[in-house]
Amino acid sequence: MKKNGLYDKIEPFRQSDNVAERKGNRTAGIRCTSCPIMMNYLHLSYIVTVASLGSLTKASRKLMVAQPNLSRIIQSMEETIGITIFSRSSRGVTLTPDGERFIRKAQQILSEIDSLEKMFTGTPAEQQSFSVSVPEAAYIADAFARFSSVIADAPAEFICRVTTAAEAIRDVLEERCHLSIISFMQQDEPHYRILLEEKHLTREVIADYLCPVLVSRKSPLAEFNLLSYSELRPFIEITSGTASLAPLSPAEMPKESPAGLTGRQILVTDRAARYDVLQQNPETYLWTSPVPPQLLDRYQLAQIPCTDPVRHGRDVLIYRAGYILSDLDKRFITEIIQSRRKAMPS
Predict the structure, then answer these.
(1) Are residues 256 and 290 in the same domain?
(2) How many CA atoms lie within 13 A of 155 on its CB side?
């Protein structure tokens, strides 16, 4: 390297680390001798992992680096760049406003380094992977079906898990997926807002809607423009049974409201099977989120607003604070919005 101008101020350095010394891990960085900044790519990735997990203990286990060493790495970085990255508490660590900006930039840097390495080392294309946990909603299933068309010729694994809100939250916290969608009644919004803040999860509302009643087009109920309890009373409610699934914890999740209005229910856990029952039995009905028109036509169903009782639903996208949406994430969200617009025209 020619030593003149800026070049004579920069030199490579290497720091030993109990994990960094393993074969294949990056340890090289850059030291600027005219300023105190010293950046180690491996340590940068450690800090991003701590931010992702929200816990030094969990990050220590995942990285197999002693927790005191992680604490020293973070403290050294904070002192070097002159900001506080994390706020510490008995519940774990959370990003400060400066920390959120730092992590976003760190993730971009690490991503660029990976891209640069693959460009010049001939690394084979990575497997496309995408995983999401979602509620049982026809418009979301429709969106995922269209989203699946982005799978390239390279190896790929796309996973869509249908879960309760509690399971979807757990999946993000335990890194089974980066994104989840949870569904709940709007009166439970204060509870979920507090819960998600405590778990350091970012939330974005993707749909607010009046829950319609789904019936066969042969049903006497299909003649109504609006439904109420008095019209539903003689009929049989189809339920999914999801209220019986275990919540996050009794203290953390709201109690489910009673599913039945009439005292007569048919429990069917599969969505397609519920549609078959609706189609074949005109004496049944199903509470649902809005359904795309093509699905209504396929099963010869009608969805009718109900004004008594009124059920206002809300679907919310969640992900870890500081997480940067990938291109696949953004494509999936775009498909969700498009499908929502078809199922819930304004």
Answers:
(1) yes
(2) 4
